[in-house]
Amino acid sequence: MLEEIPRAGVEQVDEAVARAGGALPSWRRLSPGDRARALRDLAENLEGHLEELAVLEARNAGKAISDARGEMGMVVETFRYYAGAPERLLGDTIPVSGGQAFTVREPVGVVGLITPWNFPLTIAYWKLAPALAAGNTVVLKPAELTPLTALRFAQIAAEAGIPDGVVNVVAGPGRTCGQRLVEHPGVAKIAFTGSTEVGRTIARGAAESIKRVTLELGGKSANIVFADADLEAAAVAAPMAVFGNAGQDCCARSRILVEESVRDRFLELLEAQVKSLRVGDPLDESTQMGPLISAGQRETVSSFLEDDVEIAFRGSAPEGPGFWFAPTVLAPVALTDRVAREEVFGPIVAVISFTGEAQAIEMANDTIYGLSGSIWTTDGARALRVARAVETGVLSINSNSSVRVSTPFGGFKQSGYGRELGPHALDAYTEVKTIFYATEEQ
Ligand code: NAD
Q1: Which of 168, 175, 325, 351 has its CA 20 to 30 A from that of 88?
Q2: Kind and range of the H or E run holding 111
């Protein structure tokens, strides 16, 4: 056991919403310069706690310490980026007859943040930083399995001088605390990251009061490898594109679509990479992949191997205690197989071959999801054609990159709606108001 914490219930959610509502008027009225300064101070304070937060996150979620360090580095960058926002929340002046019209951005109000267990603090700060920058106050409900870094964040925010009631954390179950946030009349918006199934429930619940909602949901992203690609580079990158965070990543490229003519060569190169992956103790500096989050998750992931599928090769995983699961490559896989259609959220990748660009695009789009993906080719025109045709919110060419602080991130189709990060995230945490000032008799 890492730590024992009290389980919050709906009364604590109500209290937190009341505190957030109480803090809203003064936080939203703070001058843009003062709000920017408060966020910069928070970033600076977080910087002094990076190693502590990384170790806590690695234990919290069982993730490799090297990954946790990377995620915590981005926390500071994110708060610094959005510290620039309060003074740049610009409006428009619009020519109209009889006067002058212009727009201003208002905060939405009290925002409920509901987050998953795979990137516990990362996904929270993607929401916290733009929400606070825009003048909202928040109630954050972390996932039941991973509340520790969110709770520590709230303490650090208080030490950094963020006023009481602006950031509230309620660690409790989704079905009680999460649902109460969705139904609470004092909450103006829900920013949710999690499964498509729970996202659907939240959208339904929020419809009752026309609450604003943004949803970052599941994925089934494709890693498309064309015959003209630098196959070695593609094979080096492919394992961590799906096995990073033990495959518990919404951006996991869990379908490798490879051009038929280079399939065997690519699999050979991939095998060497997968077999050399270092799977083990999350706190070991050399570990690339830790265990799965829970026994339940291991059961879910294992169920995909009970289908009629063919294992091409696997990496290794430690024996003994821990929810270990060896990185697994399935080939050949048909697009109709369950493993090619459902989000696995574990270290299994399906290799599917295609012939020609048109079929690659058709296969990449043959999914209800549309979050991320990669294209490997040395033909620049093809890369751009395919990038435009694939229905996902983010796509990288000759790279695994999905997330940067300054670029928008979010899904097409059932991967959700709304965008996080970049300037677009501010749209999700502001309302546009039009003001008309009469200059002539009406
Ligand atoms: P989940 O949907 O089970 O839970 C997410 C959060 O919702 C948790 O805090 C949970 O307590 C809460 N919740 C559960 N039921 C609720 C309800 N009825 N009302 C309100 N809140 C409720 O997801 P998870 O298992 O924690 O995370 C894995 C999922 O998250 C995967 O599908 C993954 O793809 C997705 N995810 C998406 C992104 C993205 O940015 N698109 C990022 C990370 C994870």
Answers
A1: 168
A2: strand 110-114
The model's pTM: 0.97
What distance in Å separates the CA atoms of residue 246 and residue 64, rounded to the nearest whole number? Answer: 9
Q: Which amino acid is at 187?
A: V
Nearest Cα residue to atom 9 of ligand 1:
143
382-436 pLDDT, tens digit per residue, is: 999 999 999 999 999 999 988 999 999 999 999 999 999 999 999 999 999 999 9
Low-confidence ranges of the chain (pLDDT < 50): none
Please tell me the distance from the alpha carbon of residue 274 to that of residue 239, in angstroms, as a whole number: 6
232 among known catalytic residues: no
Residue nearest (by alpha carbon) to ligand 1 atom 14: 174
Residue 441 catalytic? Answer: no
Cα–Cα dist 34/31, whole Å: 5
What is the pLDDT, as a whole number, of residue 102?
98
Neighbours of 294 (CB within 10 A): 13
Q: Using CA atoms, how far apart are residues 359 and 371, in angstroms rounded to an integer? A: 20
Mutate to test the pocket of ligand 1, among 145, 169, 198 (most ligand atoms within 8 A of CB): 198
Give the position, in ligand 1's atom list, of the atom nearest the Cα of 216. 41
The helix-helix angle for 32-47 and 148-159 (nearest 10°) equals: 120
362, two tokens: 């058709």
